[in-house]
Amino acid sequence: MSNLRTVTHSGAGETCDGKREPRLPVLVRIKVELLKRLEDGTGWLVSRPRSLYGLAVTRILLGIAGLGLLLTNFNARHYLFGAAAAWNGQNADPASAFPRIWLFSIFRAVADIPAMLTFLYVVAAVAAVLFTLGWRTHVVGPAHLVLWVSLIELNDAVSDQGDNAYRIFVLLILFTRCSEKWSFDAVRSRKRGDETSGGRWFTNTVHNIALAAMVFQVFAIYVAGGFYKLGGESWQHGYAAYLPLQTAQFGTWPELSELVTAWGPAVVIASWGSIVIQVFFPFLVLQRSTRRLGMLAVLAFHGSIGVLMGIPWFSLAMIAVDAIFVRDRTYRSIAVRMRDAMTRRKTPRAPVLTRSTTKELV
Amino acid sequence: MNDVQPQRRSGGLTGTKRFVVVIMALFLGWHVFATALWVAPSSALREVVPGDALRGYMMPMFGQSWSVFAPEPISADYYFDVRASMTVGGQESVTEWVRASDVELSRATHHLFPPRSAMSALAQALETRNAWLKLSREQKAVFEANYYEGDDWSARMDRALDEAPGQETALTRYKEEDRASTAYATQVALAVWGDGVQRVQYRVARHPVVTFEERNDVAPERPAPSFVNPGWRGLVVEPGQSQELFGSYFCAAPAQVCEV
After folding, report:
1. Is residue A200 very low, low, confident or very high in pLDDT (cuts 50, 70, 90)?
2. Which of A12-21, A88-97, B145-154 comes out lowest in average pLDDT?
3. How many other CB atoms sit within 10 Å of the CB of residue A239?
4. Which residues of A touch B239 (CB under 8 A)?
5. Residue A12 burial by CB count (10 A; 0-12/13-18/19+): exposed, middle or buried?
6. Which residue among A68, A83, A97 places its CB closest to the CB of B60?
7. DSSP code of A82?
8. Which terminus has fewer CB within 10 Å in chain A: N or C?
9. Angle separating helix axes A328-346 and A52-72, nearest 10 degrees
10. Smallest CA–CA separation between B116 and chain A, in Å?
């Protein structure tokens, strides 16, 4: 019965009493709704840059991960990329596309000269440090990307998907204003009294679009990773986590590997848990009520992989991008609490800073 | 319709600016779609992107694949072994096998931050073995034979390979791996045994780990390794190869094997 009434109502269109909104034809209402959504979307993109603190944390942790990989392999530089590695033929005929691309070929050009390789390697490390600190990021950021990719891609045989993730995330973050907080750039612009945010519709939009691309990229990595695992028998039966830990390559702590895989149910929880956290990650972090659970689970996931499987820098890079899912408000309150704690330690009787000082913590 | 579009939502953008924003948003839509198609298993949905545009957009900058440890994770160790034939004081002798992959891996075991040099030999072993599996029986037979006499051993091996029936692409691939493996074995042999090295032989193996069911047994029986056993080769030193830099790094590994 009520159906009939609705149909008559919407069909009539113009019939309405004074208090109700005028009923418009369905197509017009859809059009209005779409335009409203479009306006909302545009407003989201244009009005202000999102996740400035989250992206600052991402920049810092990505920088540390990139630097960490460089430092870890510094002693091995000639053995992996230089004159000691001529046997693999990669300098002569690179397996990766990058050593043939303009700019990204810079390491290939000098790798066989030991002194030049060392020099450029140090330059790459310095660029990683400056990127971490957010010093003139619009110049240093691209330099860091080019130098890092140029080096890492020179030895395709020992590179992994972590290198791809790192390259993509560093590229995308360069389009954001990732050095607007917690950086040397921020300090400098505050001294100059620069106006931040607001009114810059174009850079806001570019920033937010790059952020959205990063969010999607994180989701793509987790969800795809989870789904591919579902097809494997060892994942289905819950013993997949055991297998790599028994190899020398991914079981860098054999005694620990033995310990954590001794009890069967724990292995199943780790295997199935990996799939669950990967597949459901987007849903967990996009809901405020489950975000904390999702973040803790994914931190435990990367933390244990990073230590047990000997891939710390890839794990840190993923933690770095997961940092964008924590709200700016949370970061600011953490910063305030940390400053409170530090002030109290220095001068025990000084008045405790309150949350009202949050705004000073740029 | 203007009365239902509140101006404040879009920050009061003019038509041109709004157009630019919409274009950028559409580009994001394309990027997301392309990434999703690229990351997912290949499907007929890729046909909606004309020509080679998907690959053209994704590669090389957004190149990625997330079937890591999937569908099955790595479940075996890979070995790269080297031995050499020596002439010392006019006496010929053959050395014991040295597991070069273990020497490198000793830099990773019990290290929180393993260098990538821990898995050069391991990666070479894996590539070599995978390439081997594609060869025909006749091609394998040629590679299993010894080629080291004179300066033309490489050319003679190539001629024998040309006559062996089998896949051309598989052959090209294994030839590359055989050359790289021999060049690596040469460096290892020179580092470990010094200048008396006359010729080298490498072998690679895959060694499955103890099965999950047996892991807590008192004496778990690990499956036997499967070896690929190519023949002896003359020394291969690539242009620009620094034996000194190779040797000093290789011999500095925690697992000490160098005799000179």
Report:
1. confident
2. A12-21
3. 22
4. 86, 92
5. exposed
6. A97
7. S
8. N
9. 70
10. 6
Statement to judge: residues B112 and B189 lie in one domain: yes
Phi, psi of B222 (to 5 degrees): -80, 135
Tokens of A188: 């400098």
Contact at CB, A98 and B245, closer than 8 angstroms: no
As a whole number of angstroms, the distance between CA A328 and CA A57 comes to 10
Domain that holds residue B136: 76-250
Q: SS3 for A153?
A: coil
Give bridge partners of residue B207 from the DSSP assignment.
Answer: B77
Examine the domain organization and report whether B37 and B111 are in the same domain. Answer: no
Number of compact structural domains in chain A:
2
Q: Given an 8 Å threshold on Cβ–Cβ distance, is B39 in contact with A101?
A: no
Domain that includes residue A334, residue range: 328-360
For residue A83, give the nearest of B17, B236, B245 by CB distance: B245
- Residue-wise DSSP of B110-163: T-SS--GGGGHHHHHHHHHHHHHTTS-HHHHHHHHS-B-SSTTHHHHHHHHHHH
Q: Do B9 and A262 touch (CB under 8 A)?
A: no
pTM to 2 decimals? Answer: 0.91
C-beta separation of B98 from B177 below 8 A: no
Confidence of residue B14 (pLDDT cuts 50, 70, 90): confident
Token pair recorded at residue B41: 């298993």
Q: Identify from A32, A87, A229, A305 which residue to disrupt to test chain B contact, counting B C-beta atoms within 10 A and taking the largest count.
A: A87
Answer yes or no: do B63 and A43 touch at CB < 8 A: no
Calculate how close chain B gets to A332, using CA atoms only, in Å.
26
Domain contains A126? yes
The answer, yes or no, to whether the previous bond of B6 is cis (omega within 30 of 0) is no
The reported pLDDT for the residue numbered A26 is: 87
- What is the reported pLDDT for A19? 56
Q: Least CA distance to A77: which residue of chain B?
A: B117
CB hemisphere CA count around B253 (13 angstroms): 30
Residue A168 maps to a domain = yes
Is residue A140 in a domain?
yes
Question: What is residue A55's predicted lDDT score, i.e. its pLDDT?
Answer: 98
Helical H segments across A134-200, by residue range:
137-152, 161-173, 184-192
Q: What are phi and psi of B31, to 5 degrees?
A: -60, -45
Q: Determine, yes or no, domain membership for A310.
A: no
B20–A contact, CB cutoff 8 A: yes
> What distance lies between CA A149 and its chain's CA centroid?
17
Residue B126 backbone dihedrals phi, psi, to 5 degrees? -65, -45
B27 CA: distance to closest CA in chain A (Å): 9
State how many domains chain B has. Answer: 2
- A161 contacts B68? CB cut-off 8 A: yes
Is the model's pLDDT at B260 over the cut of 70? yes
Assess whether B85 and B46 both reside in one domain.
no
Query: How far lies A290's CA from each of A283, A284, A287, A303, A325, in Å?
Result: 8, 5, 6, 20, 12
Cross-strand partners of B81 = B99, B203
Distance from CA of A342 to the nearest CA of B (A): 30
